């Protein structure tokens, strides 16, 4: 809109000094020789100079030559020679008194009516803070882009409306896309719509707006260019501080090869587990067969001492077979539940003695897992102790009580086997028997201790082993 002279008539009633002093930016009026003819109060305030040191001096001599700035002087001289005005050119200069300033300068040449003398009106806007903020923003952007490009996994920076702002080099390399096809596009429009992945879009449009971050969200998708991929997503929403759309950081880790290796490993482990289960089953069958053969041989012998020795041998073999039977039933390859294993072992020994209807069993076994390395020697100890109880504790009795208790105490397993028989004859040579030597040897193998107590109320054996040994 062009300003008419008659529209300016009301200004004639106002002191011109008041008008120019109301301008928020520094203003100078220069003569043809670039001598300062007038400066408003704002100029004196911003540049910390006085009117005495300013008015009547050439601009390049102000402040002992501080204003001798070629980037400022040259455009002003060109106005006098060739043009009417220049607008918004920037001058970056360090002043001695006030430090560095970035000035945005606009200047216009005027010609006074009558004598034709020329003047230059110069408006100087101090944009130092704005200029530094802009460059700091550019530096931060360059730093962010550099960080993104150094990442070893694909990364996208999205606006809240899913438009791609930035992408890492690894994203372009992994998904075989180009920068010009990516930046400025909505995610679901990339690559002819190949990123229209429902799980991903639901994550970004429904989950992220309500949650600040989502971690390790896995999606599977078949990309036309690179084939099926398993992608692990980590997303974080960065709220805007100026009222604009939020920013979404989306890291995409291609775990396809890793998942393939995991699946192959699981398949190999499953195959190994099945083979070991089959091996355990065959060992159990073999031990049972050996025990049956020993029983047949025992029945053919007439010597009672030989028969007793073979029965003890079969009992020990049956104790080991009970372990593998328990492994087979539990579909386990190297650990058994202590309660299942020990209670079944004791029950089988009592049943084999033919007195299961007369003997009451009392079990109190804490939950614990036993490795086969522990279960075998422990089972053999239990077999020897229970067998002796059945042989000696209940002589001339129609009933009896036999118990086994397992406790976990401060890093140890404590197994107590007891009966309510008449106790061990102190004159008997029990310490010289093979069974006693075996129990002591198996206790040592478990890094444990074996203690025995016996009186007229019964006999008890307590085996104490480190809990870590039970799992090794």
Automatic annotation (TrEMBL):
Histidine kinase domain spans which residues? Answer: 278-469
Kindly report, in one word, the top-level EC class recorded for this enzyme: transferase
Molecular function terms, GO-annotated: ATP binding; protein histidine kinase activity
| Keywords, ordered alphabetically | ATP-binding, Kinase, Nucleotide-binding, Phosphoprotein, Transferase
Q: Which domain of life is it from?
A: Bacteria
Q: Which InterPro entries match?
A: HATPase_C_sf, HATPase_dom, His_kinase_dom, PAS, PAS-like_dom_sf, PAS_4, Sig_transdc_His_kin_sub2_dim/P
Its UniProt entry gives the catalysed reaction(s) as:
ATP + protein L-histidine = ADP + protein N-phospho-L-histidine
- Matching Pfam families, A to Z? HATPase_c, HisKA_2, PAS_4
- EC assignment: 2.7.13.3
The signal peptide here is none
Q: What is this protein called?
A: histidine kinase
């Amino acid at each position: 809109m062009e300003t008419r002279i008659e529209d300016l008539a009301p200004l004639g009633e106002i002191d011109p000094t008041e008008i120019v002093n109301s301008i928020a930016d520094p203003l100078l009026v220069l003569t043809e020789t670039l001598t300062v003819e007038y400066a408003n109060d704002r100029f004196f305030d911003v540049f910390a100079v006085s009117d005495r040191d300013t008015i009547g001096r050439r601009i390049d001599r102000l402040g002992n030559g501080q204003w001798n700035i070629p980037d400022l002087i040259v455009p002003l001289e060109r106005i006098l020679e060739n043009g009417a005005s220049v607008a918004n050119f920037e001058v970056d200069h360090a002043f001695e008194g006030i430090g560095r300033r970035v000035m945005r300068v606009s200047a216009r040449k005027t010609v006074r009516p009558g004598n034709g003398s020329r003047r230059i009106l110069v408006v100087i806007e101090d944009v130092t803070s704005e200029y530094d903020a802009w460059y700091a923003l550019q530096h931060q952007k360059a730093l962010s882009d550099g960080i993104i490009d150094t990442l070893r996994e694909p990364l996208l920076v999205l606006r809240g409306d899913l438009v791609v702002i930035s992408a890492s080099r690894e994203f372009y390399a992994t998904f075989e896309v180009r920068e010009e096809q990516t930046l400025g596009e909505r995610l679901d429009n990339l690559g002819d719509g190949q990123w229209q992945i429902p799980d991903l879009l639901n994550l970004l449009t429904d989950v992220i707006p309500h949650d600040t971050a989502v971690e390790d969200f896995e999606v599977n998708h078949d990309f036309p260019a690179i084939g099926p991929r398993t992608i692990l997503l980590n997303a974080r929403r960065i709220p805007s501080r100026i009222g604009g759309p939020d920013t979404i950081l989306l890291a995409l880790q291609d775990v396809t090869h890793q998942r393939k290796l995991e699946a192959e490993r699981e398949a190999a482990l499953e195959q190994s587990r099945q083979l070991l289960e089959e091996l355990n089953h065959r060992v159990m069958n073999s031990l049972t067969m050996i025990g049956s053969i020993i029983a047949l041989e025992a029945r053919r012998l007439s010597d009672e001492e030989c028969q007793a020795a073979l029965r003890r041998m079969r009992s020990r073999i049956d104790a080991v077979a009970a372990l593998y039977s328990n492994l087979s039933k539990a579909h386990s390859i190297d650990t058994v539940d202590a309660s299942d294993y020990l209670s079944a072992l004791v029950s089988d020994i009592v049943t084999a003695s033919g007195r299961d209807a007369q003997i009451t069993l009392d079990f109190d076994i804490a939950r614990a897992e036993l490795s086969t390395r522990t279960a075998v020697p422990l089972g053999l100890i239990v077999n020897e102790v229970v067998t002796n109880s059945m042989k000696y504790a209940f002589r001339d009795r129609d009933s009896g009580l036999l118990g086994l208790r397992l406790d976990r105490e401060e890093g140890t397993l404590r197994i107590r086997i007891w009966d309510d028989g008449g106790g061990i004859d102190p004159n008997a040579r029990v310490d010289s028997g093979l069974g006693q030597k075996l129990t002591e040897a198996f206790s040592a193998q478990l890094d444990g201790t074996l203690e025995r107590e016996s009186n007229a109320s019964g006999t008890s054996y307590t085996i104490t082993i480190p809990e870590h040994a039970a799992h090794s």
